[in-house]
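Chain A, query sequence.
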Amino acid sequence: MLRGLRNPLWPLLLLLLLLLPPPGTWGHGSRARPREGAEEAGSAGSWSAFQGLRERLRAAGALCRRYWALFSCRVWPDGCRQDEEAPARPLGLEADLRVRLHGQHLARELVLTAARGYLELPRPDKALALSFHGWSGTGKNFVARMLAENLYRDGLRSDCVKVFIATLHFPHHKYVDLYQEQLASQIRKTQEHCHQTLFILDEAEKLHPGLLEALRPHLERQAPENPRAKSPRTIFLFLSNLGGNIINEVVLNLLKAGWSREEIGMEHLEPQLQAEIVESTDSGFGHSCLVKENLIDFFIPFLPLEYRHVRLCARDAFLSQELLYTEEALDEVAKMMVYVPKEEQLFSSQGCKSISQRINYFLP
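Chain A, predicted structure.
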């Protein structure tokens, strides 16, 4: 009987099932889907029917392949490696970033381009290092989680993903030598176990210089004759609030000058962001070998979020819990946030952080 499951029609049936509306939206009618046309241009609600179907097919196809691989591993375990040495490429990452990440056109484009380009290299000679910068709540951890979910079937729970939080895992500077050994050991063991690894270092601006120095061998370019050239593909993500203020200042000035948010490009932000990182006296990150020796491939700015983006985050929070909502409810949630600067009241001071907790006020 199981032999019949190898029929090629099975992936097609799975795809058709994935194209059905999510169970949480069945029977909700218009109450479950507010006037999305009123939201920001380029968001999921303002796509044309053709574009929406195309993205849905692409995402569903990627999910179909991922779940078919998982199902095959459960049915025919002899033909499947259990250590996730061949995780899926981020086929659904583009759709995830476009639909779920709001107000971050630069981060979306840079992360997708960098990840896709790196994973398509036949034999990379260097780990990919991305450094995310911006205020809390703008989506840095959210994007890191999306990348993990699209690379590994278990997402952040995968044995091939390691998350380090500076103040939690390396709290005491007097133990930096011990932390260096532990960090190097974790990286080495994970790379031995997996063909593709992801390391996320949160609060990167609070990492001790000694720990940043310990990462150098893992980020340097490897010569072809070096035995480590055969080491697994590795992606490092550094998440930091460093540079958030200068990003916000540049964005605010451009908006005041009449620029639209979507017209803001890296040429407007990159020079000021890198200068802020290098000149910071509150963090050793900008003075580390990683920055001075250009071992980080991309510094990615996360823009401050506006009222309209907070509403979209609130909508997503309602839908994720399969709750009914109204336009008025989205406005109420968005109005609970604090906006700055004091005069313009333009940017959410916490981004979309704590949105999921705030919708509890609307539960019956």
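Residues 149 and 155 are 4 Å apart (CA to CA). The radius of gyration is 22 Å.
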